[in-house]
Every structure is written in structure tokens, then in C-alpha cells.
Write a structure and sequence with these properties.
Blueprint lengths: L4 E2 L5 E4 L10 H28 L6 H28 L5 E3 H34 L4 H4 L2 H19 L1 H7 L16 H4 L8 H34 L4 H9 L2 H23 L5 H26 L1 H12 L4
Antiparallel strand pairs: 1-2, 2-3
Helix pairs in contact: 1-2, 1-11, 2-3, 2-11, 3-5, 3-8, 3-10, 10-11, 11-12
Membrane topology: Multi-pass membrane protein
Subcellular location: Cell membrane; Membrane
GO biological process, one term: cellular response to lipid
């Protein structure tokens, strides 16, 4: 008990970790992460601005893209306070309430991203299989219902986590593995029985990430079936090109997640900084690359960005 810090409320205080075994390089890591933050925040902010201002982009696909950009901004701002404190100001203590609040928002936006990618795959399937009925099938009311479903499901999956943690006794050296608070990291610190926490965590993963990825794969099977029914090779390629941006977004979200999970399970003998860097890639790469990919692959967004950069009147 002597190594545990408690605040005035009797709850533990946690110690954040920067880059274990690479402490002398943390200022360079701060510069790198600062660049990623700037690209992510500016890029996603521009996507939201362009979709709002460009009348031709007031379509279901771009509404979903706006939700993805808004979600990526949420991920960036959720990690920003403790990343700045750890890498810039070397302040590594964080209270229990602040830690679980950050944990809530990080996992909330991660689950939301998975849900948004799922509804975007449904959007692409409708656009390809029923192009003439696309706007009628995805009316604004249905888009709003999908928004609410994604938000509600994510909230319900994350809301119990702080309360489950708060009921447990902490009697270890409460040192976290990252510069931010994650549930898999926090759940190893209590001394009490964490069976309920593990069961609920597994249920959350299975009913969100696993189910979403399976449904996304299924939607692409249906998309490929629709594409193969098109006689012209040029039309098939043009139709498949409609899915490239979304497919890239799916890959840069799920591939790092799978790598992090596999490393945590089978790479226990790897240096600690490897786990930290992989976790950083999982949290930082999708918010940074999503606006870049959609800006490059979407003609309307690319054209509007060009006009903005050229300073022409629009």
C-alpha cells in the first residue's frame, strides 16, 4: 500500500508513462505527435467546413463523412491534454476521475468510429446496388436515425466502465503503460475481482468491433456481387473506385487494432516501447489519414480545397 497515491477523495492517483526505454527521445516524439495532431485537427476541420459550405456535398455519403471527421476530432482532443502534459510539461500524475473520464471518451469515440465505418459500408452498398433509389432510400431522417444508433450504442457500451472500475480497490503501484488512460491498462491495476469487468469488456468488443468488421466484410461481398454483374469492365472499375476511400479508412482503423491486440497477446517479450508505439499508431494514424485520403480521392472535396488554396472567390 505504501507505493499507492491517493487524493483527498480516497481514490487513487495514476502515473502516466511516456515512451519507456526511450525517455531521451521523448521531445522528438512530442514534435512528431504535435505534427500529427495539427494534421488531424486541421484536416478534419476542413472536411467539416467544406461539407457544410458546398451544396453539392449535401448527400448521405458526405453526411457520414462529416460524422467520421467529427469523431476523429473527438479522438484527437480526448488524448491531447495528457499527451501535452506528459511529453511537453513532464506532468505525469492524473487523478482517478480525470483518468476514467479520458478513458470513457477515448473508448466512446473508438466504438463510434467502428459504427460509422459500418454505416458507411451500408451507404456504399446502397449507392452501388440501387443508384437510382439512393437518395430516396437514405433520406435525411434515416441518416439521423443511423447517427443516433451509432452514438447510443457506443455510449451504452462505455458508460458502465467507470462505475465498474470505481467499485474496485486499488492497492498496487498505479503506473499506466501509456500517456493516456485505456480500460485494458486500468483493469490490471485493481486488487479485487475483475471477472465482471472482463466479461463486460469481452461483450463490448464482440458486439461492436467484431460484429461491425464481420458486417463490413459481408457488405463488401454484396458490393462485389453487384459489381461483377456489370457488363462493362470500365464501369466495374469506376464503380469499385467509389469504395476505395472507405476501404482505406476501414483498413487503417482495423489493421492497427488487430496488430495491437496480437502484440499484446503474443508479443509479451517485446520491448515495452513497441507496445506503446503500436498503441500510438492505432489512436493517431486513422484521424490523420482519413481526411487526407478523402481529400485526395473525392473530386468535389479536392476541387473545393484547390479553390481555397488558390484564394479564388466561391
Amino acid at each position: 500500500m505504501g507505493g499507492v497515491l491517493y487524493n483527498s477523495s480516497g481514490l487513487p492517483t495514476f502515473t502516466l508513462t511516456g515512451l519507456p526505454e526511450l525517455e531521451n527521445s521523448q521531445h522528438w516524439m512530442f514534435l512528431l505527435l504535435g505534427t500529427l495532431y495539427i494534421v488531424s485537427i486541421v484536416g478534419n476541420g476542413l472536411i467539416l467546413f467544406i461539407v457544410k459550405e458546398e451544396q453539392s456535398l449535401h448527400q448521405p455519403m458526405y453526411y457520414f463523412l462529416s460524422l467520421l471527421s467529427l469523431n476523429d476530432l473527438g479522438v484527437s482532443f480526448s488524448t491531447l491534454p495528457t499527451m501535452l502534459a506528459t511529453f511537453c510539461f513532464y506532468l505525469r500524475k492524473i487523478s482517478f476521475d480525470s483518468c476514467v473520464a479520458q478513458m470513457f471518451f477515448i473508448h466512446f469515440f473508438s466504438l463510434m468510429e467502428s459504427g460509422v465505418l459500418l454505416v458507411m459500408s451500408f451507404d456504399r452498398y446502397v449507392a452501388i446496388s440501387n443508384p437510382l433509389r439512393y437518395t430516396s432510400m437514405l433520406r435525411i431522417s434515416r441518416v439521423v436515425c443511423m447517427y443516433l444508433w451509432v452514438i447510443t450504442r457506443s455510449f451504452c457500451m462505455v458508460f458502465p466502465l467507470p462505475f465498474l472500475l470505481k467499485r474496485l480497490p486499488f492497492c498496487k503501484a498505479n503506473v499506466l503503460s501509456h500517456a493516456y488512460c485505456l480500460h485494458p491498462d486500468l483493469i490490471h491495476l485493481p486488487c479485487g475481482d475483475i471477472t465482471i469487468d472482463n466479461i463486460f469488456g469481452l461483450f463490448s468488443v464482440m458486439s461492436t468491433f467484431v460484429l461491425d468488421s464481420a458486417l463490413i466484410i459481408f457488405s463488401y461481398v454484396l458490393i462485389l456481387r453487384s459489381v461483377l454483374a456489370i457488363a462493362s469492365r470500365e464501369e466495374r472499375l469506376k464503380t469499385l473506385n467509389m469504395c476505395v476511400s472507405h476501404l482505406c479508412a476501414v483498413l487503417i482503423f482495423y489493421v492497427p487494432m488487430v496488430v495491437v491486440s496480437m502484440t499484446a497477446r503474443y508479443g509479451r517479450h517485446a520491448p515495452r516501447f513497441v507496445h506503446t508505439v503500436l498503441s500510438l499508431i492505432y489512436l493517431f494514424v486513422p484521424p490523420m489519414l482519413n481526411p487526407v485520403i478523402y481529400s485526395i480521392k473525392t473530386k468535389e472535396i479536392r476541387r473545393r480545397l484547390g479553390r481555397m488554396l488558390m484564394g479564388t472567390k466561391f
